[in-house]
Amino acid sequence: QEQLVESGGGLVQAGGSLRLSCAASGRTDHMAWFRQAPGKEREFVGVITWSGATNYADFARGRFTLSRDKVKNTLYLQMNSLQPEDTAVYYCVASSAYAGRDYATYRYRGQGTQVTVSS
Known about the structure:
mainly beta; 7-stranded mixed β-sheet; globular
């Protein structure tokens, strides 16, 4: 059973940056981030394939960057220019088949890491 462990969340002021990490216990071909703010539905942030192709949500494009270290089996999410509306629990997910923006299709899911952006 693949395990995903997120880290890097915390409290940051508006305009600041954070880098989230997601360490996988083994190889995972496709990895993504989703987030869920209080009282809101979970939403897609971005996905990266094994080859390095990426796809981002509109709100993330230009501010967030996905990358991965294949040796360490770790996914990163660099978040810049953070705003209070980015406050949410961020979840790492992974699967062997491409799942894109469909959270339910991802086989492996982390426990989430809290990101709080103060104004």
